[in-house]
Ubiquinol-cytochrome c reductase iron-sulfur subunit (Pseudomonas floridensis), 88 residues
Amino acid sequence: MSNDGVNTGRRRFLVAATSVIGAAGAVGGAVPFVGSWAPNAQARGAGGPGKGNISKNEAGQQMGAGGRGPPGVIFSRTPGKIDNPRKA
C-alpha cells in the first residue's frame, strides 16, 4: 500500500469532525441519564428539616424528633451542662 493520493489534511479534518459530533452525542445522551438521578418533587419535599416545638422542654429534658431517616433526639441542657459540659 502506498500513500499516493492520500489527503492527510482532509483525513485529519474528518477525524476531528467525527470526534466532535460523537462527543456531542455522548453528552446529549448523558444529560437525561444524569438528570434521572435527581430526586423527584415528592422526595425533595419529604427530605426537608424536621419540625418540633422545643419551647415547652424543661431543663434536662429530652425530646424525640421524627422526620426522614433515623430519629433525632433534642436535649435541653441544664445551666450546669452549659457552663461545664465535660463535668456534667
